[in-house]
Write a structure and sequence with these properties.
The protein is mainly α. The chain has four helices and two strands; from the N terminus they run ββαααα. The chain has a two-stranded antiparallel sheet with strand order 1-2. Strand 1 and strand 2 form a beta hairpin. Helix 1 runs parallel beside helix 3. The radius of gyration is 19 Å and the shape is elongated.
Length: 93
């Protein structure tokens, strides 16, 4: 694969950028994610995640199964105060 190949289409991150970061010592998915925003676009890493993990595994000599994928957090959703008050009243009964 050409080093100018974009592996994260959401954030326009090239293979060369990922390899340069790994060579600089960033060898976890979360570190690369924080620097490049890879995996934070609409696909949430479904497209690029495996490619980055493969690069980390190849560069570090690890098995890809041992490379930890990104930390997944649930989306934050607003809650109406009325619902919280209603739940509080229900707990008091």
């Amino acid at each position: 694969m050409d080093e100018n190949t974009i592996i994260c289409r959401c954030s326009d991150v090239t293979l060369k950028q990922v390899r340069d970061l790994i060579n600089d010592g960033y060898v976890t998915y979360d570190e690369i994610k924080r620097i490049t925003r890879i995996g934070m676009g609409p696909c949430q890493g479904k497209t690029c995640g495996q490619l980055v993990m493969r690069e980390i595994a190849n560069a570090t000599g690890q098995n890809i199964k041992d490379v930890k994928f990104q930390t997944t957090r649930p989306p934050a959703v607003g809650v109406k105060l009325g619902l919280i008050a209603e739940e509080g009243r229900r707990n008091e009964e």
